[in-house]
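Appendix B. Chain record.
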Amino acid sequence: MDPLEVTFLGTGDAFGHGGRFQPCVLVRTSGSSFLLDCGASAMISFQRFAIDPNSVGLILLSHLHGDHFGGLPFFILDAQLHSKRTEPLVVAGPRGTLTRLVRAMELMFPGSTGVERAFTLEVAELDPGETWRRGQVRVTPFEVVHPSGDQALALRISCQERTIAYTGDTEWTGSLIPASKGADLLIAESYFYEKPIKYHLNYSTVRDRLQELKPKRTILTHFSQDMLDHLDSVDLECAWDGMTVSI
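Structure tokens predicted for this chain:
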């Protein structure tokens, strides 16, 4: 059974605290690679860590805040103008993804959505509780609590007999339990150390709820300066930009 290789391309918050990039996780499989979120700094991460964007065939979005999907216009334009992509690209996210992506591209690069591409771009929209499949990747979304203009999702992804649970951004909600239970890896937001921030998870909550979540392994990410200031007091794994693990 081939392992999955997980590389954290961005582990910071929306504001770049600690000099960290915005949320973006690369999962390499035996056949291809996919992303979990694509923050506005994603293409800088690809360059910094010498990753070929054309190796990514699928981008999964938890929600539509700029630090989680704002890198997509740049990814798509790089595919057209620099990386010379020819293989299809699939983007899957919550309802509203197609409309928000078109608006973002036209806002930042007017006319860019009308340019002919050498590759096909497919946008799929996910519904909570309904498993979506693409190749060897199966994704089950769960609704979470994080107002972002459209629905926010936690994602449970199965591939190569491994399961990754990804909280995205959310305050504590019961849907995280079925999303995470028994997962080989839980990638959990830990925005603050113990201060309760509406619509976000903190370290204290994740730690105290692990007996309910029951993942085999947990790695924390999406750190504010407050969380960075307390890393020495954290007894769970914490991601950093460029960190790679196998599951």
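Further analysis of this model is presented in Appendix C.
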